[in-house]
Amino acid sequence: MPKPWGGGHLDQIAGHTGEGHIGEYVLFSDMRQFPVMAENSRGRRLVADVWRDLFPGSAGVPFMLKVLSTAEPISLQNHPSDQDLQKLGLTGNGKFECWTILDAGADARMYLGLKQGEDISVLRTLDADAQPMRHFNEYVPQRGEIVELFPGLVHSTVGRLLFYEIQQTSDYTFRIYDFGRGRDLHLDAAIECLHEQTPAISKVPEALETSAFKLRYHPAENLSGIKPVNDTFSVFTWFGCAAEFICDGQSFSLAWGDSVLVFGGIQCSVEKKEGTADHGLPLIDMLFEAYA
């Protein structure tokens, strides 16, 4: 999807030739506004339909997977928790999200949380502030970092960034400051949902364990005989050069950003092909496994 802050990293693989640049590239979702297709030997179907057939009693896929590409600032924003939604009289899920940094330009910065001692009232006056981001904790992102953005944590980025995002299945974003773009703000809701203002930052291949979802990172030397951590389902995503994903007697060609949904804890493997990629994206010989 094109975004006002889109970075252009993803335009080629998304086949985008229109105005603006792709900012969000949805890899896996069952939300109708993000109609991701799943393909196997029996054809192509919506992920939502596949999931409903396999898990008829479930509330749906518990998480979404995306890649985000930025060059311009992302709006300063936060997201509600499940409990916040109840308090606000809204339906659905809250939005806890985590980023894995795939690439970061020298100009890239993350603003994560109000600085200690700052009063929340500053959130209402940022449009009139000559230096609005001085009120927030500044971080220099590094490739391979894992950033946990707890519900309520105010956050933004500036500069050129590419990151993989796992989040609860939700489309709630409360915009606080939009860098003069003129889009609607949601100050009352955002302030109502303020919570912990300190992120958790770790580094791959350390596993990510949260109450909403989990991630494992399988390094290049361990890509044969991979046993999914979850016996129910896992979603594997590849950011390397061309490869084959082999599972249960089936083989699928993998390109950068492709994801494979595996059910039942079936063992699988990845075989890399010879050759180079021409899309200019960072090549990461590591298989990402998302599950809940």
Walk me through the structure.
It is a single chain. With 292 residues, the chain is mainly β. It folds into two domains: 203 residues, Jelly Rolls (Sandwich), CATH 2.60.120.10; 78 residues, Sandwich (Jelly Rolls), CATH 2.60.120.10. Helix content is 7%, strand content 39%. It contains three helices and 23 strands. It is globular, with a radius of gyration of 19 Å.
What's the layout of helices and strands?
Layout: E1 2-3, E2 21-22, E3 24-28, E4 37-40, E5 43-46, H1 47-54, E6 63-70, E7 76-78, H2 82-88, E8 97-104, E9 109-114, E10 136-139, E11 145-149, E12 155-158, E13 161-168, E14 174-177, H3 187-192, E15 200-203, E16 208-209, E17 214-219, E18 233-239, E19 243-247, E20 250-254, E21 259-263, E22 268-272, E23 284-291
Q: Could you state the oligomeric state of the chains shown?
A: single chain
N-C termini distance: 26 Å
Q: Tell me the total number of β-strands.
A: 23
Structural class: mainly beta
**Which CATH-level-2 architecture of the largest domain?**
Sandwich
CATH evolutionary superfamily of the largest domain: Jelly Rolls
Count up the domains.
2
Overall pLDDT, averaged?
95
Q: Roughly how much helix do the residues carry, as a percent range?
A: under 10%
What integer value in Å does the Rg equal?
Answer: 19 Å
Order of helices and strands: EEEEEHEEHEEEEEEEHEEEEEEEEE
Short key terms for the protein model shown above:
single chain; 292 residues; mainly beta; Jelly Rolls; 2 domains; six-stranded antiparallel sheet; five-stranded antiparallel sheet; 7% helix; globular
